[in-house]
Design a protein that fits this description.
The structure holds 2 protein chains of 2 kinds. Chain A contains 11 helices and 2 strands, in the order ααααββααααααα. By secondary structure, chain A is an all-alpha fold. Chain A has one domain: ABC transporter involved in vitamin B12 uptake, BtuC. A two-stranded antiparallel ribbon of chain A has the order 1-2. Chain A starts with 5 loop residues before the first helix and ends in an 18-residue tail after the last helix. The model of chain A has no long low-confidence stretch (mean pLDDT about 85). By secondary structure, chain B is mainly alpha-helical. Chain B has a domain at about 85-325: ABC transporter involved in vitamin B12 uptake, BtuC. The longest helix of chain B is centred in the middle third of the chain and has 30 residues, at about 125-155. Chain B starts with a helix and ends in an 11-residue tail after the last helix. In chain B, about 50% of the residues are buried. At the A-B interface, α4, α9 and α11 of A face α6, α7, α12 and α14 of B.
Chain lengths: ~280, ~375
């Protein structure tokens, strides 16, 4: 019975996973990223209009990721260069993305999906699904086993250490935020490519759910993606609607779990030390 | 003689200018400058987008001026749109003044709205008892929903932003469950409850002021909102608790040194903020729709953040900003009909406005170090 839920779990977890990976880069560099929701939404939007305009899903993917990156750049300019309040900026970007996509809403013409790969014993999924575990492991290595990752994390943990090495915090925070735009944009593209069209507000809080997964996974790629799979499974259970559990309870389970973990009642979750701190 | 007159005129004139300057300083009018700059940018951007679309921006500006203010009826709609935003704006500002971000207004107002509807449906009391108990019950539930993140922050150090976001989604799910599975009006497909008692409804202002047409939805909840703004102003600036709240926000160390427990303040500030946000739900249920409808709020909790920012967290500034946003909502509708511009343009503009406002504040703080704007305490 559980096995029947694997395909929908994978489909639910993949966009979450991409957004969460992006969020981890941004938050590890010390920038709170509430804008994941908006970046995903504009990514999905970009995929659909890009594909409609050119007929090629690859161009759509490029446009989607590019749009996500553009919003990330806006977030970075406001929060890193102008030191604006990161939380409020993130919410502003989400509203902006909602508005832009509503204003320029694409036609309802269906678009093609990203190519599916058939893998023995696993099944046939969009190649993005296979990309996620690869990127997850790569991100883990990059963040925790290389000097590059050490520096990015130093921007979020200890500004003094970064300053002692005469490295620019600004540069690393830009890198972190831009990566979050690329990843969240990809997540949005996947979302749109699975349903073949764009609807207003189609991310439906997935960006915030990804944020919850980041916290649940203690700001680490491996456990963060594991949390995404857990949350994806909860959604798959809700969709299957088998055991007569109210869907709304399953729906809010990830949020309740995250609150419990954040409060340190079960396990601990510790944010990067300088997360959200401005330069003084 | 002639010169004497000129000198006298000059002295009188100079005196009045100086007095105006003092007045401006007294009411901290220089704090309006960033808001006005951001607004100018907002209108310019909207005009530019229309120019690109090949429409006349001047026509757009004319509609902005005329749409909400041409008649008393239209202005009534503007104030009606502004009512929930006054409450959520005040709720955000109360939190912000003590260094807390209440992003959970949306959830709090749903919970409170449901409480108001439940009491209004199930209690059969005369009006003078039922209305206060509905409002009181709603405020208690809003306060409770807001106090949970406050408690988690004070007790476990969990960040209130994440928890208020999580509580929003939990509230949406809970409301959806209650209104589709338990309290849905029998024989209806729409996810809403039955109507509240006649006695629990707040009268429309049209029934008190004959100058307004009967169709105008402006109701007593707007007066409640104005009263709430005045109360917030007095509370924040003229009471001990207001002082404690601001001290914890501006100088947490000084507050702790002065014997104020920041944890306690965090809990009651979040509760108070939740109660005020809950009044937005009261305005909807008791003033307008007379029942609880699933997903009734069009992001009022989030617009409240923009309202609080634009009003510089000052209760009267918030009143003005909420009325402005109320008129923008009406303009968005008119523009959609008259110029066929999707109202997403205004939503995008609102997002841009928020980003500008927070950026401008820090830019101006960089340039003028004497800025009196509230700084968030870490």
């Amino acid at each position: 019975m559980i096995f029947e839920l694997i395909p929908s779990t994978l489909r639910m977890a993949t966009p979450l996973g991409f957004a969460a990976l992006g969020g981890i880069y941004s938050e590890r560099s010390g920038v709170i990223n509430l804008a994941l929701e908006g970046m995903m939404l504009i990514g999905a939007f970009g995929y659909v209009i890009g594909t409609q305009a050119s007929g090629s899903v690859w161009f759509g993917l490029l446009v989607g990721v590019g749009f996500g990156l553009a919003l990330a750049l806006l977030h970075a300019v406001a929060t890193v260069t102008f030191q604006a309040e990161q939380i409020v900026t993130g919410i502003g970007i989400n509203i902006l993305a909602l508005g832009i996509t509503e204003y320029l809403s694409p036609t309802t013409e269906q678009v093609g999906g990203l190519p599916h790969w058939k893998v023995p014993f696993i099944g046939s999924y969009s190649f993005v699904v296979y990309l996620l575990p690869v990127l997850m492991v790569l991100s883990h290595i990059l963040l925790f086993k290389t000097p590059w990752g050490l520096r990015l994390r130093a921007a979020g943990e200890s500004t003094e250490a970064l300053a002692a090495l005469s490295l620019s915090r600004t540069k690393w925070q830009y890198i972190g935020v831009m990566l979050s735009g690329i990843f969240a944009g990809t997540g949005g593209c996947f979302l749109a490519s699975e349903v073949h069209y764009f609807t207003k507000g189609m991310t439906a809080g997935r960006g915030y759910l990804a944020l919850a997964a980041i916290i649940f996974g203690n700001w680490r790629p491996l456990s963060g993606i594991a949390a995404c799979f857990l949350f994806g499974f909860a959604t798959a259970l809700e969709l299957a609607n088998r055991w007569n559990i109210p869907g709304q309870l399953l729906n809010s389970l990830p949020y309740i779990l995250t609150m419990i973990v954040l409060a340190g009642l079960v396990g601990t979750s510790r944010p990067p030390a300088s997360l959200g701190k401005m330069e003084s | 003689m002639e010169g004497n007159y000129v000198l006298q005129w000059f002295l009188v004139k100079y005196n009045s200018i100086a007095r105006l300057g003092n007045l401006a300083r007294k009411f901290q009018l220089q704090n309006c400058i960033p808001s006005l700059l951001a607004l100018a940018g907002f209108f310019l951007l909207c005009g530019l987008v229309l120019q690109i679309r090949g429409q006349n921006p001047l026509e757009f500006y004319r509609i902005i001026l005329v749409s909400g203010f041409a008649s008393l009826d239209e202005f009534g709609y503007v104030l009606f749109n502004a009512t929930p935003l006054i409450f959520t704006g005040l709720a955000v500002a109360i939190g912000y003044k003590s260094g807390l971000f209440n992003i959970g207004c949306e959830g709090q107002l749903y919970i409170a709205a449901f409480a108001a509807a439940w009491i209004g449906i199930h209690l059969n009391l005369p009006s003078f008892l039922l209305i206060p108990s509905c409002i009181g019950g709603a405020m208690i539930f809003g306060a409770g929903w807001g106090a949970i993140p406050g408690l988690l922050k004070a007790r476990y150090g969990a960040h209130e932003v994440i928890n208020t976001i999580m509580m929003n989604f939990i509230a949406f799910a809970l409301m959806n469950y209650l209104v589709t599975s338990v309290y849905q009006e029998p024989g209806q497909m729409i996810p809403h409850t039955q109507q509240i008692h006649e006695a629990a409804r707040l009268p429309r202002l049209a029934s008190l002021l004959p100058v307004l047409p009967q169709s105008n939805p402006l109701n007593v909840s707007f007066l409640l909102a104005c009263g709430c703004a005045v109360c917030c102003y007095v509370f924040l600036t003229h009471t001990r608790w207001g002082y404690e709240l601001r001290l914890v926000g501006n100088a947490p160390d000084a507050a702790a040194y002065g014997g104020i427990n920041p944890g306690t303040v965090t809990i009651w500030v979040m509760a108070l903020s939740g109660a005020v946000a809950g009044l937005a739900g009261v305005a909807e249920v008791m003033g307008y729709r007379h029942r609880f409808l699933d997903n009734f709020s069009s992001g009022w909790g989030f617009t409240g953040i923009a309202v609080a920012l634009l009003g510089r967290n000052n209760p009267f500034g918030i009143l003005a900003a909420a009325i402005l946003f109320g008129s923008l909502n009406k303009v968005a509708l008119d523009i959609e009909i008259l110029l066929e511009v999707p109202r997403g343009l205004f939503l995008a503009g609102q997002g841009m406005l928020i980003i500008w406002l927070v950026s401008i504040e820090s830019i101006s703080q960089k340039f003028f170090n004497d800025s009196q704007g509230t700084k968030r305490g870490d």
